Amino acid sequence: MRLLSQTTRRLAGGLSRHRRRKLAGPAVLLIALMLTGGLFALFSPAQAETKKANDADDVAAGRALFLVGCSSCHGANGEGIATKRGNNYGPPLVGVGAAAVDFQVGTGRMPLAGPTVQAPRKKVSYTKEEIQQLGAYVQSLGPGPAVPESEEYDPNEGDVSRGGAIFRTNCTACHNFAGAGGALPGGKYAPKLTDVSSKHIFEALLTGPQQMPVFSNDVLTPADKRDVISYLRQNDDAPKYGGFSMGTLGPVSEGMFAWLVGIGVLVGFAVWIAAHTARAKKAVKGGQQ
Amino acid sequence: MSEAVTTNGSKAARSQKPSKVAGVADWADSRLGLAGAMKKNIRKVFPDHWSFMLGEIALWSFVVLLLTGVFLTLWFKPSMGETTYSGSYEPLNGIEVSEAYASSLHISFDVRAGLLMRQMHHWAAMLFIAAMLVHMMRVYFTGAFRKPRELNWVIGVLLLVLGTLEGFTGYSLPDDLLSGTGIRAANGFVAAIPVVGTYVNFFLFGGEFPGDSIIPRLYTIHVLLIPGLLLALIAAHMLLLVYHKHTQWPGPGRTNDNVVGFPMLPVYAAKAGGFFFIVFGVTALMGAFLSINPIWRYGPYNPAEVTAGSQPDWYMGWPDGALRIMPGWESHFWGVTLSWNVFIPIILLPTLAIGILMALPFVESWITGDKRDHHLLQRPRDAPTRTGVMVALMTFYGLFWIAGGNDIIAITFGLSINAITHFLRVAVFVGPVIAFIITKRWCISLQRQDNEKLLHGYETGIIMRDASGGYSERHQPLPVDEAYAISARERDQIFQIESSTDENGVEAPGSRAEKVRARLSQAWYGTNVQKPTAAELEEAHHHAEEHDHESDSELAGIASERHEVDPPVRKELPPSD
User: Fold this and answer.
1) Closest CA to A94 of A107, A83, A82, A78
2) How confident is the model over B108-118, as pLDDT tens digits?
3) Taking the complete model, does pTM exceed 0.80, yes or no?
4) Which residue from A206, B118, B246, B490 has the fewest beta carbons nearer than 10 Å?
């Protein structure tokens, strides 16, 4: 122990003696650079190689999943299958991007249970990892929007009132003022937005699934999208100021409650009042029976 | 009257010092002369039935509307001037809105009880019109609109129309996304009126839509013009009710010339007063617990925006439904477009409907030729054609209602909005016809059943076994009150023309109209079942008595049951001709 401390002291003393020499600065710099470079050479390329290998693995795994679960409609290479009438049995997926996969599969819309006018939201069939692999495969078919980073759709970062204005201008016409959903022609519909995750809202805006138009980043900037998400989250968490909202479906449910609850209860009271009339009549009635 | 003298009490009459209340009453009477009028009306008799209280719901809702409406006017700013919202509702802070919208938000979030008052006002408006509609159906189904009450029926229809307009103007005031969409729609409706539409629009809006005068103008109409008219017509409606006296159901002792019931004071004053508090209470509970027209969620009106599920309030729902299912017909000539697709469903159809409603009493009295006064009500089954007409109208209304909510129905039940539209385009024509036929036949079979009960008694549920082993059910005569009520109706008289041509073969003037009338009268009454004649009743009772004697011995063994099915004493039934 003493030997060790003596050696270090001597070494340090030697270094210290040379520290004011002319070449000391460049020498230290050289050493530092070599050290950094060496470390980089040691770790970085290897890491990049693993990532590349992982990506390739993801694509391969995604392709395997795709061939089993998706290819029957979208084609073995995601090229789509056309029907005799020229419609799509399943549309081509070249260029739709990982974001589209993450939305469609992540909300359970894909794989489709059967041919319907619109893919309904249902139980998710794939794990997060599998969805990521499928996304990687579809992304490899052609460049498309990637899955957004979590800060892009962080509702705490957006401006609620600005998001409300954007929402009313672009979204309420189909999705209803409270995001309760609305009908579209031919049995299609705009689904409700109240229980959709922020990531999926961002992806839906980006990729325009089903009947929805694409709101690309040129039309609604990522900041705009985040504002809309903030507004929708506020919409979910807002206190019910006026009481029970009756589905926030507008005047139809209000009218139904006016008739069934309002008129129903009041007519009930009218019957009750008319049945409980002045005593004299009751006595006569009772006497007759 | 300076001394209170008791004459009818159990104690001996003696003079007392006048009470303070009597002093005040005397003071008022000697200046206003109310005692004479009050004496008569304070004891005014009203009959008792739950269905007579439906109009009262409307009346009391109107009182709630006046009370809550006055509260709202204290803060509402009927202005389309632009302002930046800054108030308690965070998500709209910093947004450009109209003063009307900002003040509505202020009432909702910053005025104590403001939101409650807004919601009560809106619920009361819906109940007001709904109660008027239900009351109208009751009056029609029971024939209470017949002479001398036809004009009161017309006033009632006017009240319904004015109530609807009042509701629409109120819906448009807060200037939220929904109300603005409603005004935009109204703008389109007016524009669809041929020739004058565009001019009327510019007159209404003071220029191009939306301008800055429509909300102040609607406000004046909403708080001054229509409430004034409503109040005047409600007063007329009530005065006529007092003048005509209330109708009553037929029954022992109740005739066309009397009213059997309880006096205004104390019974009906207490009942009606109590009912006001019930209506107020129900409205307050609905206002407190059910969110209506959440304007903060709709956002401010912007002509570029619209929301899915944009609907008018329910009372405008049926013309809106007609508009939704109307095929897109348009004509173009001389550089002019005629929008049949808007004009027919939203201008022509409601106008026609109001006209038909107003004409109903007059059409019926012309067809039936019945010009007598009627103070006794008819059961719906005893006027099968009339009942059928109203059910057909209700079906018509209901189907258009469904059309008005087609998008909500589509999304709620997972249907195609196109399929609903195609179905309703046929159903609105076929449905009322089917409803009419079913209702009319249903009424007639109920009439038959009444006759059965009159002639053969009601089914007791007691099964008798005779000596040969056969089974039969024992029938008992109806209790006399019930038998009276069933048979206290007039025989229908089909209008018949004596002879349309005289002995020289010359057609009598107006005989073509008479022929139509005779045919309609035949259609109106022809299939009705008439009540049994006195002779038929007598014979049936005679037969039943014989039967009674036969079965008496058989019943001797079951004394306890025998006691229960004792036939009541037969009293005189109303005269059967």
Assistant:
1) A78
2) 999 999 999 99
3) yes
4) B490
